[in-house]
Amino acid sequence: MDENVLGIIAGVFTSASMIPQLVKVLKEKNVEDLSWITLLVLITGVSLWVWYGILKDELPIILSNAFAVLVNISLLTCYLIYRK
Amino acid sequence: MDENVLGIIAGVFTSASMIPQLVKVLKEKNVEDLSWITLLVLITGVSLWVWYGILKDELPIILSNAFAVLVNISLLTCYLIYRK
């Protein structure tokens, strides 16, 4: 299989897996079970992967991790808004 | 920065971010809030990333995603054991 096609498919799966969490938080406005440390570590990690993808010039890596940065920054924003 | 070093650091961050979830489930033996669909989609996605890493011969991609496969299979196993 073409490597880029494989990377795009892999990226769609790992990106899709994050959506239910964001939908759940937006719907229930409940962030009790979220860990902001986990979110910060994850945002740092996926941002570094974007940098790695840019250095390696690999679009699937850049796109899927940039999406993950957005989702996790959204979750962190929800955390700051909805925490009690 | 050397690309492989960057990839390893990125992998350590994204891998580390998964540990709290696994520890929480093992400690509380409560999987009520886990979604097995999310876990299955994630296991599929990270497995495809391992395949991508093998095709591209990129060790950071292979290692961090292989770790993610292990963590998520462990979570799915916990789900099957602890669900009510």
From TrEMBL, chains A, B:
Gene3D superfamilies per the UniProt record, alphabetical: 1.20.1280.290
Pfam family, one: MtN3_slv
Keywords: Membrane, Transmembrane, Transmembrane helix
Ranges annotated as spanning the membrane: 6-23, 35-55, 61-82
Classification via InterPro entries: SemiSWEET, SWEET_rpt
Name of the protein in question: MtN3 and saliva related transmembrane protein
Protein's organism: Chryseobacterium camelliae
Upper lineage: Bacteria, Pseudomonadati, Bacteroidota, Flavobacteriia, Flavobacteriales
